[in-house]
Structure formats: C-alpha cells, structure tokens
Amino acid sequence: MCRPLVAVALLAAALGLLSRPARAAAPVPDARAFEVVDASTGEVLAARNAHERLPIASLTKLMTVIVALQHLDVDQTVTVPKAAAGVGGSRIPLRAGQRISVDDLLKGALIQSANDAADTLAAGASGGDVPLFVSWMNEKAQQLGLTDTHFVRPDGLDAPGHVSSAHDVIVLAQIAMHSPVVREIVRERTDTIENGRVAVHTWNDLLGVFPGLIGVKTGHTDKAGWNEVAAARRQGYTIYAVILGSPSRAQRNADLRRLLSWGVAQYRTLTLVDRRAYAHSKLGYGLPAVALVATRPLVRVVKADQAVVERIVAPSAVRLPVARGQLLGTIEVRVGGHVVGVRPLVAARSVRRPDLGGRLRWYATRTVHDFLGLFS
User: Which entry of 61, 107, 140, 217 is annotated as an active-site residue?
Assistant: First the structure.
C-alpha cells in the first residue's frame, strides 16, 4: 500500500504568466463599428457599436454564397440573366445569356466581389426568382440568430433596409468558413475563371501581407463606407475582426491590421505539461526516490493575462517493486480558474525490491546507525 496521497498546488510562475503587466487596450479604429472575437470560444475581445444596424456592402455575399450552395453544386452550369449582366459596381463582367459554372461564379463573388456573379448565383439557385432567393437569405439569417440583419439584395449594393451589424458579420463569416469551398476561395489573391480566359483579383489588401490571414471578405459602397471581416490563424486559435464604415480603403487596412495584431497577441500557445519530473516518491531500503513523469504533453492556448495553476497529487512514498510506467499520480492544470487538462503521472523507471540479503544488510545498517545516534 502507498502512504496517504499528498496534494500540492503550484503556481506556474516559470511560465511567466503571472508577472506580465496588464494587457494593452485594444486599438480603436476610425470606423462606425468594429468587433474582435476569439473563434474557438466566441469570446468578444473588443468591440464598439457591435450591434448597430449598418449597411455592409459586399460582406452580404457571404450569405449569398451560403444560400446558393444549399441549392447548387459547384460543377453545375447556369445562365446569366439580363438583370445580373446589367448590374453596376464591381463586375467580372458577364454577358446576358452566357453559360458559366457555379464554381466560376463563387470565385467571382468572393475574390473580385463581382455583383453580376452574386446576382447570377441568386437567379440560378432560385430558378430566376431573385426575391425568393433574398427571402431564403433572411430565413437563414434568422436560423443563425443574426438578429441585427436584414437583406434586400444578394449583391450588397445600397438599398433601404439592407443592414447587418459588426457582431452578425463575424458570426456570418465563421459560418461561411465552415465550407471547404469558401475557405479555399477566400484565401486566394488571384484566380482565373472561364477556363483561364478571365482573371479575378481580390480587394483584400491584407492577404499575403498579414501573417496567417486566411480570408475572408471586403466590401464598399458610398453608403456603407469601407468594410472588411478578416480571420487570422495562429497555432491553436483563430481571431476574427471586422470593421464597418471606415472612411477609406487605406484607413480600413491600417486599422484592421492593428486590430488583428492586438487580437492574436492576447493569446499564447504553451506547453503546460511536458515530460519532466513533477514529483518524487520515496522508496524503502535507502533507495533513491523514483521520479514521476507525465505520460504525454499538455499543450493549450492561454490568454496572456490568465494565471496558470498546477495541482499535483502523488504519493509521498510507494512500496517496492515499482514498474516503469506504473500509474502513481496525476497533474491537473487550471487556467483562469478552469481545468484545461489532466495528465497521469507514472514512474520514470523500474525499481526491484531488494532480495533477502539486501534487506537484511539495510536493516543491519539502520540498526547500527540508530545505535550510534544515541552517543552523538
């Protein structure tokens, strides 16, 4: 039998998490609204006017694509309607009556933010009934809990009552990024459609410039201003940031870069448990204590201002023999008061029980030592 277990709580000061100064305040962009979110937890890290209903321009196309993909396959071919071919703003351009693949339309809508591509997707999905398609967009918004959102057009051009919010846009972007098709397209700066005859180019100036940026969408109209929702990935976490109503493209880019830089700096991916010895259990017969090691590492994303606490439960002594890998304890790690992982602690080596002669010699040695201690 083992001796009673001993629980030891250790602050992980060695990680440097407890001595850091308070985290810097989030930058405040020159925009009507913004929000920064941790995608894995949904935690809002910073925001202003995040639920104000505003025009969102071509960020609308994220919903257009989500709904279109519920009714169309990427390898289908659809016909460009006259209304779509004549729409204003950013275009591929398309011709009325032209046959084009859904895949090409998705690239046009998401990379070049082409209004004719978005309107053709809507018409193709709905059998030419674009108002029906818009109703599907609004139904989907309700299903997703986008309570600040109402759509009037599939392309995002200014229209009375066509609004969303910074918070809803981030939710929408995350839903869109669940689609492998969308994820693949929005990370591209350029691509070709129509069998390589037409090139499309992104309006997302941070792609290929900001480290780890994986999309997702820009938008601009006179009424909406300059908008963008973007996602930046780091090991173990992804940060989303949105800006609505920036006064210029350059200002939007600069502010979004600052927001993303601040957002990713709020976290660190740390090895909270490694393979070092976390405790030592005494052995009998004067043998050296056996080290207790974790069976596998524990790696977690930790907010920079959260305290990390280790709780080790292990026996102060164990009976022989001990087998290498024998379960002898546990280590529990808490971050910000919440348990983020538990790892078993096992014996780092095998130790045999001494034979009878060895045990007798040890007892004899202890007897002599205790006797001499009477005269010291």
Answer: 61
Domains identified in the chain, total number: 2
Domain extent, residue 309, equals 5-17+270-373
Taking only the tens place, the pLDDT of each residue in 347-376 is 999 999 877 765 566 666 665 455 445 445
Q: Please say if 58 is a catalytic residue.
A: yes
Residue-wise pLDDT for 258-308, tens only, equals 999 999 999 999 999 998 999 999 998 888 999 999 999 999 999 988 889
**Catalytic residue list contains 126:** no
Calculated CA dihedral for residues 337, 342, 343, 344, nearest 10 degrees: 120
Q: Is 212 part of any domain?
A: yes
Q: Which two tokens stand for residue 48?
A: 């202003």
Residue 219 is inside which H or E element, if any?
strand 213-221
Q: Which of these three, 219, 250, 265, is where a domain ends?
A: 265
40 in catalytic set: no
Structural domain contains residue 89 = yes
Question: CATH number for the domain including 9?
Answer: 2.60.410.10
Burial class (CB in 10 A: 0-12, 13-18, 19+), 338: exposed
Q: Exposure of 244 by Cβ count < 10 A (0-12 exposed, 13-18 middle, 19+ buried)? A: buried
From 101, 113, 164, 281, active-site residue: 113
> Which of 58, 101, 246, 281 does the annotation list as catalytic?
58
CA angle, residues 168, 170, 175, in degrees to nearest 5: 95
The tokens for 207 are: 């792609």
